[in-house]
Amino acid sequence: MNRLQWRPLSLADRDAIIEYIAQDNPSEAIDLDLEFETKAENTKQRPKLYKPGRMKGTREIVVRPNYVMVYRITGDLVEVLRVLHTAQHSP
Q1: Which of 21, 37, 61, 78 could connect to 69 by a Cys-Cys bridge, CB 3.0–4.6 Å?
Q2: Is residue 88's pLDDT more than 80?
Q3: pLDDT on residue 1
Q4: In a 10 Å sphere around its CB, with 0-12 CB exposed, 13-18 middle and 19+ buried, how is residue 42 labelled?
Q5: Contact, 90 vs 82, CB < 8 A?
């Protein structure tokens, strides 16, 4: 099994998204945060499960239609690099 690491920028992204959603719908924010965590944990067992990313050496997890998690695999380490709203995620 691989190790999982959330990079500081990905944690900041995640926190900002959850805080924003929680302003209007706290339970939805909790549900989305659990989805982020579950999808990231899935990469520990199957790191190549998700599609190759737009940036070389990365992969992308679509979390609902509006959110993308960008990660890379380095040896036995899966690093979550960013958590973005699709409006932020351009080629």
Answers
A1: 61
A2: no
A3: 79
A4: middle
A5: no
3-85: CATH architecture = 2-Layer Sandwich (3.30)
Whether the predicted pLDDT of 91 surpasses 60: no
Q: Tell me, what's the pLDDT at 36?
A: 98
Which tokens sit at 63?
A: 């979390």
Q: Which two tokens stand for residue 50?
A: 């998700």
CA 15 distance to own-chain centroid? 12
Q: Quick one: tokens of 62?
A: 């679509």
Residue spans of the domains in the chain: they are 3-85
Q: What is the pLDDT of residues 23-33, one digit of tens each?
A: 999 999 999 99
81/10 Cα distance (integer angstroms)? 5
Report which residue type is found at 3: R
**Structure-block tokens of residue 8:** 């500081």
Say how far apart CA 64 and CA 73 lie, in whole Å: 22
